[in-house]
Design goal:
The protein is of the alpha+beta class. It is 28% helix and 26% strand. It is built from nine helices and 21 strands. InterPro entries: G5_dom.
Amino acid sequence: MMINLKRFAVHTLLLVALIALIYVPSFALISFTGKATVSENFSDTARIGSVPVSGLTRKEAKPKVQEAVTAWSKKTPLTVGTGEETLPIPTELVTFQIDESIKAASLKKGGALQVTIDEAATEEYLATQPITYTEEQIQTFKTWLVKTSEKLEESNFDPAETVAAVDPTGEVVSSVTFMTRSAAEEQMIDAMAQVDIKAGQLMNVKTYGMDPVAASFIGSKLYELFAKTPFEIVERMPHPQLPDDVTLGYDVKIDEKTDFAVRNTQAVNYQVIATKNGSDVTLELRGTPFKETVTAVLEAEKTIPYRTITRYSPTLSAGTSSDTQSGVEGKSIELYRVTKSNEGEVKRLLALDFYTATPAIVTKSSQEEAPPVVIPPAEESTDDTTDDSTNDSTTENPADNTDNATDGSTDGPTDGTTTPEQPVTPDQPTAPDTPTTGDPASPVDGEPTDGAVG
């Protein structure tokens, strides 16, 4: 049987056309029905970041997410610091991409709240902080800032808890040696055997001892230790007069009102290690080496002469004086912190210490001195006759002198006044001549013999 190919082709085309007329409208109807039943609302569990958007359309979700971001920004949710010493982080450092976040979110699960940070503003903000961040800590901070902002959380970034803050080597970055002078100072050194100073944290001397003299001495040594570091000197007061055994320029006064305190300005932890060998003590600051080289320089030391004050007192004897107060010269000196880096050298005045001179006080008597008593010298006689008469009288016979005395005759004026002659003391007294022969009771030859008396 011969097949008519022409008729077969016509019948086949008719069959295909019939099938198309039946199924094409059906597929179109099915496709239209499917589109009509697909929901454009978020599911009950959908969230944009931490903001629930259940049952909302994408258009309705946008104001809700914006409202949540605004409320979060007003709470000052982000801070940075260690312990209670925290500082706010401006939310302007981050920008929320709300439209992009909603558009990319799944209606069933939602999506992340997309956040970008201003790199330049963030690094500028970190540069103004009281602590210095390492490159690793800067990257850690940026990552933390993005993740915290995406979830609209409240959080604090503690640089001391980052991996970069842990230094297993603990290199010595500053040291000072001295000798203790008392038991109170040794007790303070024992308490400071190992002191941890976290990033941004304060260290106060009074924490380790309250004896004013001992605390002032140890505080002056800590001042010398930290002056060679980037640590901030938060509190320090010098004495009115420089104490003994304290280096000029590193004086620290600690009493019930004053203290010595420093702040760790680095983003890593450091330790103060006190090593004691008898009375010899070494204080060391250990941790990560500083990015800059820091030294302390004392300059412009001056000596101020004291003046002398004279006071008067009626209680002192006339013409006398006493030293009431000894004079002490004044002093002044400047302490500079020199920081050297790749950008050059920076010299900054850390302190200017000035000690006034103590005047010397001399107290003199205010009583007037009596005029001196002048005693005139004794007058010497110049009469030659006096000398002659004196010489004659010393050579005369003693018996004649006796007669003259008996007669009462005197040389000189006879006006009734008697001027005694100055006695003359001979070098050797003159003894009467002693007869060498005869009886002492016998009359001398040539001498008249009178009768016996009575």
